[in-house]
């Protein structure tokens, strides 16, 4: 069945229609949906794709999420912390290569040594680059005080994925204990937004027991929360994790990819001026996965600028791409890939979420 998307989109996209489009197994309709999302992006925020150089600071983690390869229970991981001087070099690389923005990501550690280290790194990066880089942190759930301290020391954005907005599914993919508490996660997101961060969240797609209703609710959760940035990716099994044992009841990888692209496109239609990342997990399933994400309406790519010797130990899932590529190889590669997808890399631009700016100016 071919849909008249003009007609559908004239009325506001409701949850029934979103669920219907997600579940529709029709290639021609999916293509139309991606084209409409692209058109919407280009009209509202342009076809510029912003870069965030990703630094995987440490793979130590105090949590034990059932899906994640670097969970504390996985004893096969060689744990590392990248020393400050190497982090600073990576930040300098990002600046010199005109990325304008970096993401510092790590497992979740809540001890003072770690939280103070991040504060001091923020100061050092700020000094080294004369605050020319915008910094996103992605270091899990922390107390409001710690979030505030990091914000006051130069972090402008924070990524904390909700993983799923369904509380019952959340407890299927995490241990049900105080360290993995759905309400705490929600509170942490609220606290980030309240402090003034550009706040990002996201989910995984293709989880065991996840339904089209769940995914539809995820999209409306983003909208109702007023989130500024989203990064969603397909769930990919890691053999050393409990969730991998459920492979038999999961969608095939290719379908997880298709579904992720539809989620990106529908989110672009629901929230036209937020930042949406085309995630690395897409590229793990399909060598052209990230290009497809851009072509479905995403506008952010996060090239991995972690020094190669650490990269292979930050294995959240199996088959992570570019493990042997040095950051400069990825830079040329990404420029080409974005062009292929009909986008244009925006160098030297912070690429703040337009929606964030719009919501700040209203206050
Ligand atoms: N597959 C896909 N994404 C994963 N993440 C963790 N493990 C996996 C996996 N097996 C994602 C989570 C987390 C982010 C840092 O990586 O969404 O928030
Ligand atoms: Fe730790 Fe994050 Fe992995 Fe959970 S998803 S185990 S918090 S690194
Ligand atoms: Fe790393 Fe292409 S993105 S080599």
First and last CA, distance: 45 Å
Shape: globular
Overall CATH architecture: Alpha-Beta Barrel
Per the CATH scheme, the topology name is TIM Barrel
Helix content: 40-55%
* Secondary structure: number of strands: 11
**Number of helical regions:** 15
- SSE string: HHHEEHEHEHEHHEEHEHEHHEHHEH
Q: Give me the secondary-structure category.
A: alpha/beta
Mean pLDDT: 94
Estimate what percentage of residues fall within beta strands.
Answer: 5-15%
Bound molecules: 5'-deoxyadenosine, iron/sulfur cluster, FE2/S2 (inorganic) cluster
Structural notes for this entry:
- By secondary structure, the chain is an alpha/beta fold.
- The protein has a single domain, classed as Alpha-Beta Barrel (TIM Barrel).
- Helix content is 46%, strand content 13%.
- It contains 15 helices and eleven strands.
- Strands 2, 3, 4, 5, 6, 7, 8 and 9 form an eight-stranded parallel beta sheet that branches.
- Helix 2 runs antiparallel to helix 10, helix 4 packs parallel to helix 5 and helix 9 packs parallel to helix 10 (253-270).
- The longest helix is centred in the first third of the chain and has 18 residues, at 27-44.
- The model has no long low-confidence stretch (mean pLDDT 94).
- Bound molecules: 5'-deoxyadenosine, iron/sulfur cluster (SF4) and FE2/S2 (inorganic) cluster.
Characteristic key phrases:
363 residues; alpha/beta; TIM Barrel; eight-stranded parallel beta sheet; three-stranded parallel beta sheet; 15 helices; 11 strands; globular; binds 5'-deoxyadenosine; binds iron/sulfur cluster; binds FE2/S2 (inorganic) cluster
């Amino acid at each position: 069945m071919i849909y008249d998307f003009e007609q559908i989109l004239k009325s506001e996209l409701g949850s029934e229609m979103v669920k219907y489009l997600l579940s529709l197994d029709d290639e021609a309709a999916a293509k139309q949906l991606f084209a409409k999302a692209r058109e919407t992006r280009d009209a509202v925020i342009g076809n510029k794709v912003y870069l965030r150089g990703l630094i995987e600071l440490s793979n130590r983690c105090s949590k034990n999420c059932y899906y994640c390869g670097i969970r504390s229970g996985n004893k096969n991981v060689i744990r590392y912390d990248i020393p400050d001087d190497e982090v600073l070099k990576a930040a300098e690389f990002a600046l010199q290569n005109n990325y304008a923005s970096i993401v510092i990501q790590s497992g979740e550690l809540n001890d003072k040594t770690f939280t103070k280290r991040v504060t001091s790194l923020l100061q050092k990066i700020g000094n080294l680059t004369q605050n020319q880089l915008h910094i996103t942190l992605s270091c899990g759930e922390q107390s409001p005080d710690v979030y505030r301290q990091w914000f006051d020391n130069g972090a402008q954005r924070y990524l904390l994925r909700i993983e799923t907005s369904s509380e019952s599914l959340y407890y299927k993919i995490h241990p049900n204990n105080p360290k993995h508490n759905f309400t705490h996660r929600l509170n942490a997101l609220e606290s980030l937004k309240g402090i003034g961060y550009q706040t990002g969240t996201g989910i995984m797609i293709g989880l065991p027991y996840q339904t089209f209703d769940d995914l539809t609710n995820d999209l409306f959760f983003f909208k109702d929360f007023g989130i500024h940035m989203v990064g969603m990716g397909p769930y990919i099994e890691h053999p050393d994790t409990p969730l991998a044992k459920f492979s038999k009841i999961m969608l095939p990888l290719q379908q997880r990819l298709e579904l992720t692209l539809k989620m990106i496109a529908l989110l672009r239609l629901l929230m036209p001026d937020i930042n949406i990342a085309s995630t690395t997990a897409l590229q793990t399933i399909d060598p052209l996965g990230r290009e497809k994400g851009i072509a479905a309406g995403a506008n952010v790519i996060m090239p991995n600028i972690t020094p190669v010797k650490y990269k292979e130990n930050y294995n959240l899932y199996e088959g992570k791409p570019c493990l042997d590529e040095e950051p400069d190889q990825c830079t040329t590669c990404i420029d080409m890939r974005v062009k292929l997808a009909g986008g244009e890399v925006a160098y030297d631009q912070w690429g703040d979420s337009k929606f964030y700016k719009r919501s700040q100016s209203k206050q």
